[in-house]
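Q: Predict the assembly, please.
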Amino acid sequence: MSDETFEALLQRRGVLIERIVSHGHVTPHDHPYQQPHDEWVMLLSGAARLLVEGEPERSLAPGDHMLIPGGARHWVTFTAPDEPTRWLAVHLLGAAG
Amino acid sequence: MSDETFEALLQRRGVLIERIVSHGHVTPHDHPYQQPHDEWVMLLSGAARLLVEGEPERSLAPGDHMLIPGGARHWVTFTAPDEPTRWLAVHLLGAAG
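A: Predicted assembly structure:
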């Protein structure tokens, strides 16, 4: 499996935009993602499912987007095994809650 | 020609994320875009060319991205006539210059 890559596209005061490329990667159940700030994500290509604690699991197709609230544990539960899945993530560093 | 559409996807203090869908639209030469804040754009689908004053014209394919500095006049000089061109724009409202 190829590595999952994280590429910072823009860093400004209060905002970090990054592109993430996944190849079938999922988040281990006992190691969720969790960050103090709100994070907005859009799926650019491929396919994925995302689970945010306390919310229904979401299937994401290209163009779909959602907000991951600061502090919420979340897991990528699926990315396409046969094509790259590209995400755009906008970290709202000054806008938690 | 279909209308060009602007859809706000997220508004937070200091950040506005919007999706723009163009169908062959270009910016009239005598009516450039110009805003006081930095604006980061990524092409999501389709094809476009963007001219920022003082810089070489850029051709954009899906996944290409660039920063439009606050205050700079700019023009979309081409969008694909035969398919929708989708842009993601992140307006950095507190981060000009």
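The interface with chain B takes residues 9-10, 12-15, 17, 38, 40, 42, 44, 63, 65, 67, 86, 88, 90, 92, 94-95 of chain A (CB under 8 Å). The beta strands of chain A are 5-12, 15-22, 38-45, 48-52, 58-60, 65-68, 74-79, 85-92.
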